[in-house]
UniProtKB/TrEMBL annotation:
The gene is engB. Its cofactor is Mg(2+). One of its GO terms (cellular component) is cytosol. It holds the Pfam family MMR_HSR1. GO terms for biological process: division septum assembly. Residues 1-12 have a biased composition (Basic and acidic residues). This is Probable GTP-binding protein EngB. Keywords: Cell cycle, Cell division, GTP-binding, Magnesium, Metal-binding, Nucleotide-binding, Septation. Residues 1-25, 54-86 are annotated as: Disordered.
């Protein structure tokens, strides 16, 4: 073990006089459970300490170790280079997504899975105006929810590479049905997803009775759909989280429904403002128990963040 005055080299067969360590005192009782390391509190049980490796305090002496680099090895294990942060405009996330896979190869494979799946046939299955009309099928569902005119239909079109798959309305709140789209090879359900475009909540240019009916339908679907694996909760990056977004997030937390916040229309913001907005939203999302830790910044116009979102959603249908 390394100490502050340098490494002590002890032959394997040579006993150390102080091997038992110093006595902290008879009245001192410190369970390993409450240990604090230099990097922070130790989260685990005392037995977990057996698998921990102490980092050296001082740099290694010349000749003791191989030169640092991607080919360096320690104890027969390959030492990888530090990860490079995602480039601006590609992905701004909270810490996983393809950028935080085990290595660059894993990230590339995840992106390719996403590209492959979303290049498959995508067909409109049906639109439903009530829970009793929802289709029965064996697929995993991914739903797209958000305020009216947040860009749900545009995002679905961008993900699938189709311009008219999901109708985008210039009038907020005109999507009146829960629309189902089957994505995947036409004759196999093993690598397929059901994409669900939900009516928008919040402001809508429609009669109040209709708005209330749409809202009830969306909430009933989000709470009670067993096939639902993830909700992509879309937030307009220009406006950030609104009161009704927080209300939906609280409802999803209570129902234990996994959801991921996706910021849309990033092309409308400059890079500095976009990053500041992302940081603010990510900090708020971190306080919600059912929220996915990654907040993605996307643009249906430029394609920013679209490959990363494809990769995350494809992982639900194409597990490693």
């Amino acid at each position: 073990m390394a100490v502050h005055h340098g490494p002590d080299h002890v032959r394997a067969a040579e006993a150390q006089s102080d091997a038992d360590g110093s006595d902290p005192g008879q009245d001192y009782d410190a369970a390993a459970l409450y240990l604090h390391l230099h990097a922070g509190p130790f989260c685990g049980w005392s037995g977990d300490l057996l698998d921990m490796e102490q980092r050296p305090v001082d740099p290694p002496a010349v000749g003791d170790h191989e030169a640092p680099g991607p080919q360096a090895k320690a104890g027969g294990r390959r030492v990888s280079e530090p990860k490079t942060p995602a480039a601006p405009g590609e992905l701004i996330s909270g810490g996983s997504a393809p950028a935080a896979f085990a290595d660059a190869d894993a990230a590339a494979q995840a992106l390719e899975k996403g590209r492959w799946l979303f290049a498959q046939e995508c067909t409109f299955l049906k639109g439903c105006v009530g829970m009793e009309h929802l289709p029965a099928h064996p697929l995993v569902e991914v739903a797209f929810a958000g305020r009216s005119n947040v860009g749900k239909s545009s995002l679905v079109n961008a993900l699938t590479g189709r311009k008219t798959l999901a109708r985008a309305s210039n009038t907020p709140g005109r999507t009146q049905e829960v629309n189902f789209f089957r994505l995947g090879p036409p004759h196999s359900d093993e690598a397929a997803l059901m994409l669900v475009d939900l009516p928008g909540y919040g402001f809508a240019r429609a009669p109040q009775a209709q708005v209330e009916r749409w809202t009830r339908l969306v909430m009933a679907y989000l709470r009670g759909r067993s096939a639902l694996r993830r909700v992509c909760l879309l937030i307009d990056a220009r406006h950030g989280l609104k009161a009704n977004d927080l209300e939906v997030m609280g409802m999803l937390d209570s129902a234990a429904v996994n959801y991921q916040v996706v910021l849309t229309k990033a092309d409308k913001l400059g890079p500095t403002v976009a990053r500041a907005t992302h940081a603010t939203v990510a900090a708020a999302v971190a306080r919600h128990v059912a929220a996915h830790p990654d907040v993605l910044l996307t643009s249906s116009e430029t394609g920013a963040g679209i490959p990363e979102l494809r990769a995350q959603l494809a992982a639900l249908a194409l597990p490693a």
